[in-house]
Design goal:
This protein has about 220 residues and is an alpha/beta fold. Helices cover about 50% and strands about 15% of the residues. The chain has two domains: about 110 residues, Rossmann fold (3-Layer(aba) Sandwich), CATH 3.40.50.300; about 90 residues, 3-Layer(aba) Sandwich (Rossmann fold). Helix 1 packs across helix 9, helix 2 runs antiparallel to helix 5 and helix 7 packs across helix 8. Bound molecules: 2'-deoxycytidine-5'-monophosphate. The site of 2'-deoxycytidine-5'-monophosphate has 14 residues, from helix 2, helix 4 and helix 8.
C-alpha cells in the first residue's frame, strides 16, 4: 500500500503547483487527474463529439487509451500512444473536460487508472473527487480553494506568460461557470470530504500552503 495524499478543489486554487512541490519534497509521485480528463476531452474534440451528446461521449471514450508515464519526475499523458502534454492546457480543452467529465463511462475508466496508481505508489493526487471517491481512505485529505477573483487573476497571469491573448473578466466568468458545473453534477460532484482539511490559499503564498500540508502529512 502506498501513502496517499488527496487534494481536491476548484480550478485555479493552485492544486497542481502545490501538489508538485509536496511530491518533490516528500519523494512521492504527483498524479494530475485533471490532465487525464483533459486528454480524454482532447480526443473528443478531435473527433468532433458534441459536448452535450452523452451517448456519443460514452461510445467514443472507449476508443481513447490513456496512460501515464513519468519522465524526470514529470507526468506525461499519452493518448493512444501519443504524448499530448503540449495540447491539453488550453481553455477549449479545459471547458470540454468540464463538460465531458460528468459522464459515468469517462469517470469509470479514469478512476480505475487512478486507483491503480495509488495502490502501488506513494502519491499526491489532485482533482475534484479524490478524497470523496477515488481514494476514500487517503492518509491526508485537503480541500484547497481560493476566491474566484484570485483564481481568475492567477489563470490570467499564467496565460499571459504563455503569450496567449485573454480577458480577465471572461476568465472569471468561465471559472464561476466551471465551478458550478463541477459542484452541481450528479456524478462525483466537487465537494469537501467530511474528513478533509480546508485550506483557503487566497492570501497564502505557495510555500505557506506547501508547508501547511507537509505538516499534516508529518503529524
Ligand atoms: O483541474 P483541471 O482544470 O485540469 O480539470 C479539468 C476538468 O476535469 C475539470 O473541469 C473537472 C474535471 N475533473 C474531474 O471531473 N475530476 C477530476 N478528478 C479532475 C478533473
Amino acid at each position: 500500500m502506498g501513502y496517499n495524499v488527496a487534494i481536491d478543489g476548484p480550478a485555479g486554487a493552485g492544486k497542481s503547483t502545490i501538489a508538485k512541490k509536496i511530491a518533490k519534497k516528500m519523494n512521492f509521485i504527483y498524479v494530475d487527474t485533471g490532465a487525464m480528463y483533459r486528454a480524454m476531452a482532447l480526443y473528443l474534440l478531435k473527433n468532433n463529439v458534441d459536448c452535450k451528446d452523452s451517448a456519443a461521449i460514452s461510445e467514443k471514450c472507449k476508443e481513447a487509451d490513456i496512460t501515464i508515464k513519468y519522465e524526470n519526475g514529470e507526468q506525461i499523458v499519452y493518448l493512444n500512444g501519443e504524448n499530448v502534454n503540449g495540447y491539453i492546457r488550453t481553455e477549449e480543452v479545459g471547458n470540454m473536460a468540464s463538460a465531458s467529465s460528468p459522464n459515468p463511462d469517462v469517470r469509470k475508466k479514469l478512476v480505475e487508472l487512478q486507483k491503480k496508481l495509488a495502490a502501488t505508489s506513494d502519491v499526491v493526487m489532485d482533482g475534484r473527487d479524490i478524497g470523496t471517491c477515488v481514494l476514500p481512505d487517503a492518509d491526508v485529505k485537503v480541500y484547497l480553494t481560493a476566491s474566484s477573483a484570485v483564481r481568475a487573476k492567477r489563470r490570467y497571469d499564467e496565460l499571459i506568460a504563455k503569450g496567449e491573448e485573454c480577458d480577465l473578466e471572461v476568465i472569471e466568468k468561465d471559472i464561476i461557470e466551471r465551478d458550478y458545473r463541477d459542484m452541481n453534477r450528479e456524478n462525483s460532484p466537487l465537494k469537501q470530504a467530511d474528513d478533509a482539511v480546508l485550506v483557503d490559499s487566497s492570501y497564502m503564498t505557495i510555500d505557506e500552503v506547501v508547508d501547511a500540508i507537509i505538516a499534516l502529512i508529518k503529524k
